[in-house]
Specification:
heterotrimer; A alpha/beta (326); B alpha/beta (262); C alpha+beta (389); A: 326 residues; nine-stranded mixed β-sheet; five-stranded parallel β-sheet; B: 262 residues; alpha/beta; 6 helices
Chain lengths: 326, 262, 389
Amino acid sequence: MARFWVVGEPNADGSISKLSTEVATLARSLADAAGGDAVGIVVGTDPGRAAAELAAFLPRVIAVADPGLAGHAWSVPAAERVAGVLGADPDAGGFVMLGAGPDGRDLAGTLAALTGRGVLANATAVRWDGRLVVEMGAFGGKLVTSSGFTTPGGMVTIRPNMVTAEPLPTPGVVEAQAPAGSAALPRVAIVEQVEEAGAVAPIEEARIIVSGGRGVGGPEGFQLVGELAAELGGAVGATRAAVDSGWVPYSQQIGQTGKIVKPQLYLALGISGAIQHKVGMQTAETIVAVNRDPDAPIAEFADLLVVGDLFEVGRALLVALRERSG
Amino acid sequence: MHIVVLTKPVPDPAAAAERLGPDLRLDRAASPAVVNGNDEYALEAALKLVEAHGGEVTLLTMAPPSGADTMRKALAMGATRGVLVTDPALAGSCVRSTDEVLAAALRELTFDLVFSGFDTSDGNAGVVGAAIAARLGLPYLSNAAKIEPDPAAGRVRVRRITPAGHDLLEAPMPALVVCTQVLGEPRYPSLKGIMSARSKEIASRSLADLGLDGATVGGAAATTEVLDSRRPPARGATTVVRGSAAEGAAAIVALLTTRRLI
Amino acid sequence: MSTPPSGHRLTEEQILLRDTLRELADARIAPRAADIDRSGEFPEDIRRLLAQHDVLGLPFPAEHGGVGGDLLTVCLAIEQIARACTTSSLILAVQDLGSLPLRLGGSEDQLARWVPRLASGETLICFGLTEPEAGSDAAALRTTAVRDGDDYLVSGTKRFITNGSVAGLVTIFAVTNPEAPRHRRLSCFIVEVPTQGFRVARLEHKMGIRGSPTAELELTSVRVPAANRIGDEGDGWDLAMRTFERSRPGIAAQAVGIAQGALEAASAYARERKQFGQRIGDFQMVASMLADMDAQVEAARQLLYTACEVIESGAPDAARWAAMCKLVAGDTAMRVTTDAVQVFGGYGYVDEFPVERMMRDAKITQLYEGTQQIQRLVIARALLGRGRD
């Protein structure tokens, strides 16, 4: 019987990460298709809340409380605890699903070495076809490959916004388990945790992104971008040029050396759409661009291109949106 | 200090000529290879650190023999030497083989730090660094925006980017660090560096040299396989709207309404 | 068109160097080109950039702090920079030209004295041969260098000296033996400036390469130690001729670079500009022009690369090869830039687009370092032998 493990990631405030709830929803649908089951694992110093929140999406969640995690980087010791849970399970196969965010990736890498399982990373689609079939983008999205495992089990990391999280009609149960398995890998101490003003939710999780490029001209220009994002209930993104100029922090950079995002709406202001940026956002469901240049590369793949000055059009759009919402 | 930087040759994203061959593996002949862009940030960070603390930078790559050519630019940037792990059995390796082979190569070296780039432009996996650290029992510090080793104390501090801001991590060396773009722009190779790159050593290691068996690592032992590939579905035609700003805004609102985004 | 041309005859280092400089030029020099032309000011920032990246060290031997690039390597660098900005490429080309007599005929002592700071780029050197009455007729120099104890006193006027106002070293050709046969009258000196009696009389206002200072230099009894003389008395003419064998390819490289830049600009425009419902590149008259431009640039380039290899290998007819590559490249640059303006139509005439500047810049490659007519004389002489002397 195919078992789909979901490794949940607790947020800093103890809640479960949005991406984990998406992964959980995916795991459930795969389990249904495969005639198997989906089980969550949440490891933390005090995982109760996160486990309970994940249980809204999975029939069974194993919570492993490890106070020894306190003050240490999470992913490596958490991976060891996850390996402990997997090791104790008689089902030697089974697939392990994780979010493809920074912590998820880190845990996936460590877990891969601990368990010898294969990894298919940054999946954009997963389905069950008698075996697990994982779709990933290759070469900056020019190709979509379908891959599978040659071994009985495997690990898959899932990009944000691949599925919409759907809770169960009734929440599942949380089962506490004592930490098991070895704790031999070095734990890295966290000396200090710094919150930065203006730090935002991970942009990969946003459903709507309003993004500014070189054409925005400066931090003042990004105020308009921020207002539009707020009006649409979305996040602010930026191209590399804007980040390099210091107008926006790196965590909001979208593209080849920044984040890959798949929002429902990507509104690109003053962005040419060159390949380095394109690979970061080309799979967005709806792409709207505002640009003075009708021949900018983004014209090739946007759904709607408004030719004009981004500030004039942007302000007009802000007015129109505010009027609409009354 | 001795820093090992993991580098990977990838098809040049700017050339836009990548494709898979009939065996569904990367057709390396079709596209010129360059050093993975994100690895250059790791290399730049390493070069700056050995300039400040003294020491050397070794490049470590697992690639076909042509990987030596791609290493030239990295050597021209200032790395001291390269180690190329190459073996026909490694063609078609999965992530598990890659990290096992690189870990084996690292066991032969003495180092203070291993740097890895954030992910690769041709596979985006980003998990190899963590796997190698686990195999070697090295402290693992990722998402680095700043790296500050203290060679005298044998410890390293890393500023790790988090959603809320950053964490300051500390660990004893040797350690493995995954680097980000925030560490700083890679330098252009100096012309003196370019001219002297040829005289720098690139040592070659085969699987046998590393005590590994082609039956248990490499293409034959791949844990994953590509089943097929296709072009992504084409997006629809682009609607272009010119006219006044108000008209443009109205067009956007109409589209968002139709698609139920607002 | 950001893919560089094929490097099938280039070494790995040359390919890497070419690609690195291409990226550097695109990122840091091209954005400055229009401004440099408009302001007419020497781009000190570009000089610093080139010095920082060892570019000015390319022509110099490694044992004195240079990069030790061969002739082809230096030309590759000039070509890539010229593609972005002709004025900027001249900084390297003249550092090469001005120092060639020293490198060809200087003693170990003299090399050790001057090469390190030339290679680091902290000091620029210029080539002082041309005078108001001695352009093509270079042997008709009037500047004199009269022996006075352990020194010479140098007096005369030099004209059209590139970088004459920003150089710290001036390579001066002067008459030391007025009675000697025509080609033994001249000697070559390195003059360290500023110095008593040396002054920059004026700067020219030019059609192109406007950011490059073209100076008239006045020397009035400038005291130059005999230790600053390159080679023996009378060696000047020979040093100048041997210099041209290596510096003319540099100008050819500049011309090929200018032409390539113009070709790329025109091609990009032809791909995007639409008239009569289609892109203008699809009209045969335009496509035909661009095709000819591409073929001509490639031909000039390949001739240049071959010339570099032949000259570097010490061939006896090096002068012929130098003249040929300069002749062909200069005429190509003029033709290609003129056609590039044509492709742009009216837009090619306004300074919002770079091709009018490239056309103005290209003209000098038909004029300096030996006019095209002089190049033809050199080639004809090699072909036909000397009829009269």
